Amino acid sequence: MNVLFLCTGNSCRSLISEAVFKHLAPGGWHALSAGSQPTGKLNERALALLASKGIPTEGFTSKSWDSLPVTPDIVVTVCASAAGETCPAYLGPVLRTHWGVDDPSHVVGTEDEISAAFERAYAILRARIEAFLALPLDALRGDPARLKTELDRIGRIDA
Questions:
Q1: What is the predicted pLDDT for the residue at 89?
Q2: Residues annotated as catalytic (active site), given as ranges
Q3: What CA–CA distances, in Å, run from 144 to 48, 52, 94, 116, 149?
Q4: Would you kindly state where each structural domain of the chain is located, as residue ranges?
Q5: From the CB of residue 42, how many other CB atoms can be counted at a distance below 10 Å?
Q6: Rg (CA), the chain
Q7: Where is the Phosphotyrosine protein phosphatase I domain (predicted)?
Q8: Which of 4-8, 112-116, 137-141 is the most confident on average?
Q9: What is the mean pLDDT of residues 129-151?
Q10: Is the pTM of the predicted complex or chain greater than 0.85?
Q11: How do beta strands 95-98 and 2-7 pair?
Q12: 62-77: buried (b, 16+ CB within 10 Å) or exposed (e) per residue?
C-alpha cells in the first residue's frame, strides 16, 4: 500500500510525514511525498529535527507529484487550510484525506519560537501517523469507506 503525503512545496511537512511513516510503518506499507509546486530543496530545520529524533532522511528530495515512481493508494494532504493555504488536489482515483498542519517554516520569531513550531508540527504528524498505523490495516484494506472515515478522524487529532 502506497501512501502519498502531499503539500505545495514538498520541503517540510510532507517530508516529515514521509520520513516518520517510513520509520514506523510495517512491511507492505510505503510512504512517499511530493508537492504540486516543489521548492526543489528540503527544509534544513525539518531535516535537523528528524535527525534529532533518529529518523533517517538519506536520499529524500523535494519532488513534484508529476514524477512519482508509483501510483499512490492513499493521498494525505498536510497543508493547513485554516491558515489560508490552498492544498493541492491530487487528481488520481485514490482515497484522499486531509490532515492540515500549520507550516513551521513560515513562523517568524525567536529561535525558541521557531523550534517550538517545528516540534509542534512533528508531534501532530507523528501522533496522526501512529494512530493510522494502529488501525486494523489488513481489515481496512478491503473497506475503503471505513478506512476514509478513520483517516478523516485521525486528521482531527492534535498532539
A1: 65
A2: 7, 79, 87
A3: 36, 36, 10, 36, 9
A4: 2-154
A5: 21
A6: 15
A7: 1-135
A8: 112-116
A9: 93
A10: yes
A11: unpaired
A12: bbebeebeeebbbbbb
Kind and range of the H or E run holding 77: strand 74-77
The dihedral built from the CA positions of residue 131, 136, 141 and 144, taken in this order, carries a sign that is: negative
Using a 10 angstrom Cβ sphere, with 0-12 exposed, 13-18 middle and 19 or more buried, the burial of residue 89 is exposed
| CATH number 3.40.50.2300 given to 2-154 | yes
- Nearest 5 degrees, angle CA 152-CA 70-CA 40? 85
Contacts of 93 by beta carbon, 8 Å cutoff, 6+ apart: none
Identify whether the C-beta of residue 34 lies closer than 8 Å to the C-beta of residue 69: no
By the 10 Å C-beta count (0-12 exposed, 13-18 middle, 19+ buried), 39 is classed as: middle
Decide if 2 contacts 21 (C-beta within 8 A).
no
Percent of the chain at pLDDT above 70?
92
Sheet of strand 2-7: strand arrangement: 30-35, 2-7, 74-77, 95-98
Name the β-bridge partners of 128: none
H or E element in which residue 3 lies? strand 2-7
